[in-house]
Amino acid sequence: MNGRGNSNESRIIPGKVPGRFPGFLPGSGGVRAVLSRIPYMLFMALLLLAGFPGLNLHAQDGAEPSQRTFNFPRLESLNNQDPIFRQISDDIQSFYRWQAGNDARPQLSIYEYVVQEGDSMFSLAARLNIPQASIATLNRLDNPRLPLPGTPVLIPNIPGMFIPENPESDFQRMLSSRIKDDGSFELSEQFTLPPRAPGKDPSSWRFVLNGDFTGVERRAFLQVLFRDPLPGSYISSGYGLRTSPFTGRNQFHFGIDLVAPMGTSVVSAMEGRVLDVGEDRVYGKYISIEHPSGYQTMYAHLGNIFVGIGDTLKAGDTIASVGNSGLSTGAHLHFEIMYLGKNRDPQEYIRR
User: Fold this and answer.
1) How confident is the model at residue 48, as a pLDDT?
2) What is the Cα 351 distance to its own chain's centre?
3) Tens digit of pLDDT for each residue in 128-187?
4) This protein's superkingdom (predicted)?
């Protein structure tokens, strides 16, 4: 943080729009600037008098969790004709001035926007001048694909990340682990978000002021976290239940089999450190690599191995060659991805 203010000061004020009105900021052009904003100021004043619903994310006390209602002010369009858009823009600019020591920090508020045809995560973030991470984490999106047109999404008025106290996906667990592992997130506000489906309970989240994705988190979000360990190969057997070619019985296959000619180079799918190198009756010659953020990969049925335990690798470094060692039906690479010790389907992580 930059030392101006404490992140614990962030509070969501119910019943009004936080942030100061444009035209009253120092150096805003004096009387002419104020007069030019009278229609906007009058509109906002009426909203204040009426009471703006939904800015308090701590839902109604006493209500059953699944019956609580969450109403957010509606952002109708992404242009300056919309007073809500102007308010969000003013808050975001005030936030960046606060970072430079020239303004007060706006309080966190949440708005609703209905996805339009042609909208994308990139265009929405660029138009609002906030990181993609702010929109993605507030809406519990693990990838950059917005919901279908006509679907409402939530928009914050200041940059930051929204971290679930009970993560449900690998991506959310990755973000939450930064809080627990290294304390790099400075938490500012605990609040409740509406359920993702009718009848479900709301969920507790933390707001991380000015938080953004790390390089690894951004690649995971963009779904380019892992490289293809064997470019030019084809998949002969996928992840999941299959009939064993050796026993004829159904067995779970914890990785994918990639077929390529004997001796083809096998590369590290992600930067990391060699955790183990060895030979197994089933897996044959294998390499296990530890990666950032709790990921691990395993490469089996190898031919020649070119790395040793403790070696540091970059994504794309050659580590071995395709072989036929162990219990194998022919030259191929058996490839596994694990997250926090649990196997994942590599096809969900690798673009081929």
Assistant:
1) 42
2) 18
3) 999 999 999 999 999 999 999 999 999 999 999 999 888 999 999 999 887 765 555 666
4) Bacteria
* Contact by Cβ (8 Å): 226, 249: no
Residue type, 127: R
- Per DSSP, the chain holds a count of helices (H) and strands (E) of 7, 18
Classify burial at 132, counting beta carbons within 10 Å of its beta carbon; exposed 0-12, middle 13-18, buried 19 or more.
buried
Phi/psi region, residue 121 (left: phi>0; alpha: psi -120 to 50; beta: rest), is alpha
SS3 99: helix
What is the structure's pLDDT at 178? Answer: 78
Q: Select from 126, 178, 122 the least CA-distant residue to 145.
A: 122
pTM of the model: 0.72
What element of type H or E holds 278? strand 272-280
- Cα–Cα distance, 302 to 328 (Å, whole number): 10
Contact 295, 270 (CB under 8 A): yes
Cα atoms found within 13 Å of the Cα of residue 44, Cβ hemisphere only: 20
Instruction: Tell me if residue 288 falls in helix, strand or coil.
Output: strand
- The one-letter code for the residue type at 281 is R
Q: Which residue type, as a one-letter code, is found at position 135?
A: I
330: alpha, beta or left? (left if phi > 0; alpha if psi -120 to 50)? left
CATH class, domain 234-348, is mainly beta
Q: Which residue has the tokens 């592992």?
A: 181
CB 137 within 8 A of CB 169: no
The domain locations on the chain are: 7-221, 234-348
Rg (CA), the chain: 26
Going by their DSSP bridges, the two strands 256-259 and 312-313 should be labelled as unpaired
Residue 293 CB neighbours (<10 A): 21
Give the whole-angstrom CA distance, residue 13 versus residue 109: 8
Query: Tens digits of per-residue pLDDT, 56-71?
Result: 444 344 444 434 446 7
Q: What is the DSSP letter of 314?
A: -
